[in-house]
Amino acid sequence: MEEITKQDFGKLKHGMAVIDSSLRIHYVEAGESEKTIVLIHGFPQTWWEWRFIIPKLAEAGFRVIAVDYRGAGDSWRPTTGFDKRTMATDIHVLLKKHLQIEKPVIVVGHDIGLMVAYAYAQEYRDLTSHLIVVDAPLPGTKAFDKIRTDPRVWHFAFHNVHDLPEMLIAGRERQYLQSFFNYRIYNVGAINSNDIDIFTNAYAAPGAIRSGLDLYRAFDQDIIDNRESLKKNGKLSIPVLAVGGEISTSGPIMNEMMMEVADNVTGVRIPQTAHWVIEENPDVFLSELLNFLK
Questions:
Q1: How many domains does the chain have?
Q2: What is the mean pLDDT of the segment spanning 39-50?
Q3: Above 80 in pLDDT, residue 7?
Q4: Residue 11 has what pLDDT?
Q5: What mean pLDDT is predicted for residues 38-46?
Q6: Of 113, 142, 160, 213, which one has the fewest beta carbons inside 10 Å?
Q7: Among 111, 135, 214, 222, the one annotated catalytic
């Protein structure tokens, strides 16, 4: 699948939503429809993660909203609020107050975006029609507790240390991101040098790496929040698609993990992918997504 062309770029609308006095959220919009699909990227990425499928989703009849969550891309970088419940509220303000979307939306999240997407579906049940989660453990689940100690997710512990990671990564953002992608990839051509440039420029900006690491430092609060929400509200009843990479660390646990927090779960594994599922095999991912939404 080809990524966004120059013609596609001309159809994209970039916007900034004022969330509060300390935060503005950047988003990209494509398509015109009453059916809205919200795309939430992971770390260390931006809305550009969805470059292969944004035009195809718009062509398929969806209004597509791809966000840069707080601290990432062109969004502002506050010093607090990186728990996923707060980040879900950011998305809610963007959709409800800024874009004035009234109908329930489809929410898709990959990696850290999975955690934000789940928090959104839990907090705003009446405003979420479908949830699609892609290849990451969810804090508060048994699956997360199990995978957190796996040496393949060493970055969970490293990113949780204060100050040291920033010191070691500063000035070496491209090297760190390149190794981060390469360590978790199946299709090595899926994220090319131009993509690395885009992500490096985003995370070399002042405060960007600190914001990215704070996502991980909030995991303990996310565990508390997710368990509290599940106890209070119960499992999700909306349709949930749990997507895993063929050879990723999280791939084998996705279906079982989401069954801990949702009643109506469909699990799929995307062939020829590791962690960067959407970019490594966008055609199959898009096919599974559209089939799920029929």
A1: 1
A2: 99
A3: no
A4: 81
A5: 99
A6: 142
A7: 111
